[in-house]
Amino acid sequence: SDCESGTCDEGTCLSPAGGRCVDKFGCTTLDCTNNVCQPSVGSGFCATDADCAVGTCREDACTQGSPGSLCCGQVPAGGACVGKFGCATLHCSDGVCQPSIGGEPCGSDADCTAGSCIADVCATLLCCGQVPAGGPCVDKFACTTLDCSGNVCQPSVGGGFCATDTDCAVGTCVPDVCAGGLCCGHVPAGGACVDKFGCTTINCSGGICQQSTAGGPCAGAGDCTTGNCNGTTCV
Q1: pLDDT band at 4; cut points 50, 70, 90
Q2: In whole numbers, what is the pLDDT of the chain averaged over residues?
Q3: What single DSSP character describes residue 109?
């Protein structure tokens, strides 16, 4: 290149962030203040990563400019931005990249208000997932309980999915209820259920764990119509 900066645009040498300038058109960042080219924030123009105050210089981060323009992108939550495509979370508000809730894009765990940044929530992007019951969400697959309602991950009843005991409305999170994962189990008679194996009585009807008659399974006296549980059997 004929330019010391290494960037030539239509016969004009452009200075990188930190270089001298007389107007913005002499800067790779299109930002000249006090005769110095300023670094760009998320979605601001750049030529190399060094032009970015944070994030990296890439083709998919511009919100304006011609096709093929380079802008600073993958800016984490809390970083400065001028457009959503500069943010790893695809959410820029008041000049700041906003954190994501369950089911929204992310670049790292730090971008998530709850849970972690994983690959198996969204089809093509990393998104916040493994959000526990009570955490914010936009998609059920972001929740450890696979239940998102009213933008909140809902707790599971007996037989419902979980990751820890706190995901269960009642009972505990155990591996012997579901075929391929952890689900809420050990729910006593009277507790809510979606599957009989979530109940201590192995009897779920009408969404409620039912009591056992004499000879049926139990974990406590309340599980038995007789009011007497001997070990694991109603008597």
Answers
A1: low
A2: 93
A3: G
